[in-house]
Amino acid sequence: MENSILGILLTVIVPFLVLGLASVVQKLGVSAEGSRKLVHILLSNWILLAIAVYTQAWAICILPACFIVLNYLNTRTKLFSAIERDEDNTLGTVWYAVSLFLLCLAGYSLEMPWLAACGMLAMGYGDGFGALVGRRFGKSKFPGSYSKKSLEGMVTVMIFSGLSVGIVCAIYAPDITPHFALYAALSCAVPAAAIELFTPRGVDNLTLPLGVSLIIFLLARFPFLWPVFFCLSIALLILIFAYYLKAITISGLISAIILGTTLFVFGGLINFAALVLFFVLGSIVSRIGKKKKSVAETLHERHGARSIAQVVANGVPSLLFAAVYYFTGIESCLIASIACFAATTADTFSSEIGMLSKKVPLSIITLTPIQRGISGGFTALGLFGGFLGAIIISALMIPDFGVKGMIIVAIVGFVSSILDSVLGALFQAKYQVPSDQDECLLTERKFTDGKPLKLIHGFKWVNNDVVNFASVFFCGLLLAIIWQFI
Predict the structure, then answer these.
(1) 259 located within any domain
(2) Is 359 helix (H, G, I), strand (E, B) or coil?
(3) Beta carbons within 8 Å of 187's beta carbon, 6+ residues apart
(4) Which bin fits 4, alpha (ψ -120 to 50), beta or left (φ > 0)?
(5) Residues with Cβ within 8 Å of residue 367, at least 6 apart in sequence
(6) DSSP state of 122
(7) Which DSSP string corresponds to 234-256?
(8) Is the domain of 197 the same as that of 311?
(9) Does the pLDDT at position 385 exceed 90?
């Protein structure tokens, strides 16, 4: 069929046949969204026909270029109503044609025309079936501005995108590397779902296919990147579910993705595993006894979903030591990087579990009773929680550094949680809450009801994030030095 008149005619006729079919099924009672997604899915297969017909970039790009103009005019005239939404004007169909044009141009220029098929089919089947499943079965809605998207739809996008990419690579690129199709499917599935979830409606017809094709191109040219994309997918999947559970903000999610990827590059799998374990366990323990901890949590400057500031405070110390290890090869810096997560986990466990204690917390400095929820206090239950958190993370040391490494990291992690309380008691800012009673109530929040509060202890610039960063980094540095002499 290659370069034949019949093949060229089919590439021109098929899109209009699909549009006609959608109009017919819409008149037969199919919803407007259903007919639109029918076009969305069926038209994505055009790329397979075009790859079989055309051998030159200019030739395959002619029809997509024409449809960019036609689709834009259709958004104004609604000549083909089966492909446009009535309730918005997102230019989604225009971006669909733009994606096809760009991917055809790039794929043929790189002598990898199947790249265009990867991106277009991932969008066509992933986004298409994801929207249909989401509308029909989507009960688990995401929070905030993404409330129109559902967990069920996101999982469907992930499954169909991965399958589409895997099948295309198995057929058109079987000899790049062993198991390339499997690696490509696993590397693209979650990123495709994340792009569709967080990209504004309509624009995902551009970002999803381009993003998927970019990942496949990088994997094909640089096969050693497969573990990086695999870890990125794991991190993305965990963080998307965390976002659904309102355990992390969008800014926190983006910063955590960057942190996780760079940590894997600099510190390897053990560092990445420590980060994932810390985040998952920290999120779980923070939800235990949520109602009982609610009063104490209101005293904190930040509570609820993790933000970018918390990600930086808990993760950057580890990243710094991992980067030093990557560029210098100093083993003690790798140990320190892992110990930082033992410290952050210990601190999280100590705070979250400690707030469940029935006993009044004591000041870490004076050993006198202290207001519940204020930094600088401790309970026996909280100390046990801190030790437990440090032990769990330190267990990752056993395969490479033995029991000795585990014990040392656990000790440093636990000590860091105590140091965190000491720094919180001595330097963290605490403000007085207006009260009609004689007792002096404290809070770590700078404002209440929009009014600034009076600072009565500590320094304004020292909040919980600063204390966390300082205690974790100091203990990591201490371990990096001590390890040299062990």
Answers:
(1) no
(2) coil
(3) 215, 216, 219, 226, 229, 230, 232, 233
(4) beta
(5) none
(6) I
(7) HHHHHHHHHHHTTSB-HHHHHHH
(8) no
(9) yes
pLDDT (tens digit per residue) in 309-332: 888 888 999 999 999 999 999 999
Q: Residue 459 phi/psi, 5° resolution?
A: -115, 140
Which tokens is 485 given?
A: 């002499």
- How is residue 306 written in tokens? 């993790």
User: In terms of domains, do 43 and 135 share one?
Assistant: yes
Both 159 and 285 in one domain: the answer is: no
pLDDT number for residue 1: 44
Whether 33 and 178 map to the same domain: the answer is: yes
Tell me the β-bridge partners of 432. 442, 454
Does residue 348 share a domain with residue 207?
no
| pLDDT at site 319 | 95
The C-alpha angle with vertex 258 and arms to 271 and 338, in degrees rounded to 5, equals 15
- The pTM (predicted TM-score) of the whole model is 0.83
464, HSE (Cβ side, Cα atoms, 13 Å): 25
Residue 159 falls within a domain, yes or no? yes
- For residues 352 and 341, what is the distance between their CA atoms, to the nearest angstrom? 16
Q: How many domains does the chain have?
A: 2
Quick one: 376 and 480 in the same domain?
A: yes
β-bridge pairing 377-378 and 362-363: antiparallel
With respect to residue 439, please indicate whether it lies within any of the assigned structural domains: yes
Same-domain check for residues 317 and 461 = yes
What is the CA 339 to chain-centroid distance, rounded? 24
Q: Calculate what percentage of the chain has a pLDDT beyond 90.
A: 51
Domain that holds residue 287: 277-485
Tens digit of each residue's pLDDT (9 = 90 or more) over 423-470: 988 988 888 777 655 455 777 777 666 677 777 777 888 888 899 999
- Cross-strand bridge partners of residue 363: 377
- Single-letter amino acid code for the residue at 38: L
Task: Choose the final residue of a domain: 222, 239, 254.
Answer: 222
The answer on 296 and 218 residing in a single domain is: no
Residue with tokens 């601190």: 347
Cα–Cα distances in Å, from 183 out to 48, 113, 212? 21, 19, 13
